[in-house]
Amino acid sequence: MKPSEAAPSHYFTPRAPRENDAPIEDNAYRIKEKIGATTLSFHTSSGVFARNGLDDGSRLLLETAKILDDMRILDLGCGWGAVGCFMATRAPQSRIVMCDINGVAAQVALRNAQENGLTNVAAFCGDGASALKSESFDVVVCNPPVRAGNAVIAKLFDDSLRVLASDGGALWIVLRTAQGAKSWQKRLGNQFGNCEKVAMRGGFRVLKSVKSDT
User: Fold this and answer.
1) Neighbouring C-beta atoms of residue 196, cutoff 10 Å
2) Residue 201 domain flag
3) What whole-number distance in Å separates Cα of residue 210 and Cα of residue 80?
4) Along the 214 residues of the chain, how does pLDDT read in single tens digits?
5) Structural domain tally of the chain?
6) Residue 169 sits in a domain of what CATH number?
7) Does the chain have fewer CB atoms within 10 Å around its N or its C terminus?
8) In whole angstroms, what is the distance from residue 119 CA to residue 117 CA?
């Protein structure tokens, strides 16, 4: 994906991250995270969400979302790539695409995939799934940036509906109950025709909506 000449900065440019996007070496953090029996090593960075470690919402999402091997999976708003990387280890025959509007996050996510030896992962910097014109996915996972505002969250969900396969493509999201999870569940129910609360823990809810032709 080539950068748009009209884009004011790489934070809004739908393209693969490049080595010279941001000097992450000097402000990088090194952490390890474990989900189930799998432990991965990660870099994080200043200016990236949850730089000190995997947040509770993403952990619940990872422990709850159901994926099979040989799927096409989109980690929408991937941050430093924890969700996408763990899913890549769980489903090594699947194709994982990670996307974030923050160029630093996209760069760090790609680096984490590479350093963990995950060859089934791609990453790009873009505004939601706007850069994905024709590719469809069996699963979209998202821990939406609530502080960015309702319009941003709504766009992520609209993009998810567009890129999901119509034969049962599933959106899995995690939201805090105190930050409007019930309202978003109602909205997604109207948008997809269904929205199920799959898990609750620590003030978070994991919601699932399935796309169909009907």
Assistant:
1) 13
2) yes
3) 26
4) 222 222 223 333 344 544 444 445 544 678 888 988 999 999 887 667 776 668 899 999 999 999 999 999 999 999 999 999 999 999 999 999 999 988 888 888 999 999 999 999 999 888 888 878 778 999 999 999 877 788 889 999 999 999 999 889 999 999 999 888 999 999 999 999 999 999 999 999 999 999 987 6
5) 1
6) 3.40.50.150
7) C
8) 6
Domain that holds residue 48: 29-210
Could you give the CA distance from residue 192 to residue 93 in angstroms, rounded to a whole number? 28
Decide if 10 is inside a domain. Answer: no
Buried b (16+ CB within 10 A) or exposed e, 102-121: bbbbbbbbbbbbeebebeeb
Q: Is residue 11 part of a domain?
A: no
Q: Is residue 196 part of a domain?
A: yes
Of 206, 127, 212, give the one whose Cα is nearest residue 161.
Answer: 212
DSSP, collapsed to helix, strand or coil, labels residue 138 as coil
